[in-house]
Amino acid sequence: MKSKFLAAWMLMLCILTASVPLHTQASKKTVSKKVTSLLDAGEDITSLGEFEATFYCPGHCCNGGYTGTALGTALKPGKTIAVDKSIIKLGSEVIIKYPNGKVARYRAEDTGGAIRGRRIDVCVASHAEANRMGRQKIQVYIVK
Ligand SMILES: [Zn+2]
Fold it and tell me: From ligand 1's centre to the CA of 20, what distance in Å?
């Protein structure tokens, strides 16, 4: 009798676990190999879902004369991103998946007046590149 009850309980637990929406349990197992290939041994990720990306260059045109990031580090095109620090903690390692399938790993070291909520500003090498990249819907993962 007791084992039958246990089996029913286990079954119910399985059903409950399986019905949890995928995005809340994103981990190495549930995202593409492209994303996990950017992780070091022992690292895992949490999905934050969809954000809107814009792009900025280190020049005065985009960065208003600031020469460093909000954390006081140097702006590194292809590595530095600006975030809303109430959403993504400064210093976080962040993986972005672009609509064209490209994935890249960044560090959240900067902030910006217009970067609020589900917005990320990606530092790129030139103003022309920033213009070319435009605005994109991206998938965001935090490395933990
Ligand atoms: Zn610029």
Answer: 43
Centroid of ligand 1 to alpha carbon of 56 (angstroms): 6
- Using an 8 Å Cβ cutoff, are 26 and 45 in contact? yes
For residue 105, is it within any domain?
Answer: yes
Q: How far is the CA of 109 from the centre of ligand 1 (A)?
A: 18
Lowest mean pLDDT among 9-13, 57-61, 73-77, 128-132: 9-13
- The total of structural domains in the chain comes to 1
What tens digit of pLDDT does each residue of 88-126 get?
999 999 999 999 999 999 999 999 999 999 999 999 999
Three-state DSSP state, 21: coil
Domain CATH for 68: 2.40.40.10
> Would 5 be classed as within a structural domain?
no
pTM of the model: 0.80
Residues near 82 by beta carbon (within 8 Å), at least 6 away in sequence: 56, 69, 70, 108, 110, 111, 112, 115, 120, 121, 122, 123
Where do runs of H (alpha helix) occur along the chain?
Answer: 2-18, 33-36, 60-63, 127-133
- Region 57-81: what's the mean pLDDT? 93
